[in-house]
Amino acid sequence: MLNHFKNFKKYAFRLELLQEYNIPNERKHFIKFLKTKIYTPSTNSEWIKLIKSANKRKAKISRVHVIELPLSDYLKFEIRYYKINKNAGEQVFLLNKDKFKKIKPNIKSDFWLFDDEIVLKMKYDKQGRFLGYKEIKRDIQKYIDLKNKLLKIAKKK
Fold first, then answer.
1. Which residue from 56, 68, 90, 109 lies 20 to 30 Å from 127 (Cα-Cα)?
2. Tens digits of residue pLDDT in 51-77
3. Which helix (H) or strand (E) holds 12?
4. How far is CA 11 from the centre of its chain?
5. Whole-prediction pTM value?
6. Nearest-angstrom CA–CA distance, 86 and 67
């Protein structure tokens, strides 16, 4: 998957639908956040390098995270990282689940879309643990259309 981030030319777009992701290298920082409300920016340094690398080659990374209210503790934690990501150049948008449902999306899973050419359909278990992804190179117009709708709605805020 890392090659996709190093090789895209124009943009990488992410749709996030889960309210909590169970990421092993985040776990101790999330537990610390729950106890102290303090977060450690250095845990995201590889991602920040990818964002900056994309910016240098005039490529963009953006994401829309569909959220439910009230925010989960995990989302409160993650939103702090989004601030760091935004400072590095990533476009991050939060979209209320009700607005997401109004557009009647025909996609019900997280994905990455690269340059309108490749989709990585992400797989997670019920606890938010990453199980892998499926690479899709054909029939991706529905992903492109959803990305365009989401960015249009999200940017209106």
1. 90
2. 999 999 999 999 999 999 999 999 999
3. strand 11-16
4. 13
5. 0.92
6. 18
